[in-house]
Specification:
The chain is of the alpha/beta class. 32% of the residues lie in helices and 21% in strands. The strands form six sheets. The protein has a seven-stranded mixed β-sheet with strand order 16-17-18-15-14-19-20, sandwiched between helices. Strands 11-10-9-12-13-21 form a six-stranded mixed β-sheet, with helices on both faces. Bound molecules: 1,4-dihydronicotinamide adenine dinucleotide (NAI) and magnesium ion.
Amino acid sequence: MADGCAVQLTAPNGVTFPQPTGLFIGGQWVKSSLGKTITSIDPSTEKPIVAVQAGSVKDIDDAVSAARRALQDPSWRDLPETWDNGKPYSVSLNEDMGEVAGTLRYYAGFADKVFGQVIETTADKFAYTIREPIGVCGQIIPWNYPLAMAAWKLGPALACGNTVVLKPAEQTPLSILYFANLVTQAGFPPGVVNIVNGFGAEAGKALASHEDVDKIAFTGSTATAKDIMRMAASNLKNITLETGGKSPLVVFDDAELENAVEWAHAGIMSNQGQICTATSRILVQAGIFDQFMEAFKKQVRNVSTVGDPFDSNTFQGPQVSKAQLDRIKDFISVGKAEGANLEMGGQPQATAGGKGYFIQPTVFTGVNPQMRIFQEEVFGPFVTISKFESEEEAVALCNGTQYGLGSAVFTTNLTKAHRVARRIEAGMVWINSSNDSDWRIPFGGVKQSGIGRELGEAGLEAYSTVKAIHVNMRSKL
Ligand code: NAI
Ligand code: MG
């Protein structure tokens, strides 16, 4: 399978390319030991795209062994700069690819800047720390940003000298398998990066519970994160978890209305609402509520064009899978049953071919904090809009869920903006914007939105350990 069992695919936009379908283990393309495959589905047409190999428990074990060998291989272990050769990113640079390349370049720059400290103690002692790789890192990523999530995890792990077994989400393995060939071209020793596609319940589980894996980094649902934590306990793995959210977006009476409306729309409706930090609960102060509602609905009508993702006029494509579409439909029923007002949407979106996992952008008002649609992550173009009176009430509403990932505050009052930012329980606060992520700035959550940080310098801490070295300068005890 030298070529990854590549098949020529032609995308709906007419671009033809070789798509690897194998498992990338120890620098080689192999087939699943059980001969199982996963069929990738085009969510616009519900038609199969291609079948890719599905990794088994044994395949994960092989990948972990390859990563362990690579960790001990001097050509990797003693490499002073772990990642500055090659620019494998000559792929057309659209938004996601720009982020992937930017993140990888950012961390490549850190590869020779990971160092410890000299710590002053007493005259007869010299003490210093060094930063070492954690070891073999298992990385489990979701389907909503397949390549960007891979870059967020591979960049810091490799900059710190770790080796990696990465499991893509079963729904979206294609781009990351393509990326595997670029890893070889960039000159990484075999086994430093292994990519084993597979189902969560099999390959994901095998990785999270493997006794020779030193760390698990995961992005996905809070429920799966809890399972992973339990599995990681078997050998006390280091963990980083980035999970769900129900991020609030607060609009105070004194906000710039047009700006707030545009960000509020983009913050929930972009990427089909399938963003962990999507600002899915909009909280609007009473004095501006009616104006906001009118402008927000207009924005949804004007901007949220639903249709073919390869059509340049489309803002919102299909949801990733039937399971995700069904989940959103369920929440629409729940919202109605709970007595909230369905202001817009709420129906599957009819398309020309009658196929595909399309849903109308959906807006609920009259939502109170007890409702499930206010508390639970939907992960779709589905937003609740609630009214509040005071700053105190806004903060209480923001903090009134189990989550604490992103949050946004719209006001022109400088002191209020910073005061509220400090009071919100979240890993990130955007003042007068939403979902404004940057690879130089730490990303992650508090409460049940996760453990640890990715991106920025904080991302390096997640992939290195500190060793303390004490040097005795006295001759005897
Ligand atoms: P999931 O959390 O189950 O899947 C994410 C990744 O974990 C995938 O690679 C999957 O194969 C793997 N996985 C699943 N079960 C596993 C297990 N037992 N052991 C090890 N790995 C396992 O998410 P799913 O089922 O795709 O989506 C459900 C909900 O999760 C969504 O509706 C959304 O609310 C949330 N989600 C959040 C994401 C985020 O960016 N924070 C991304 C994807 C989903
Ligand atoms: Mg799941």
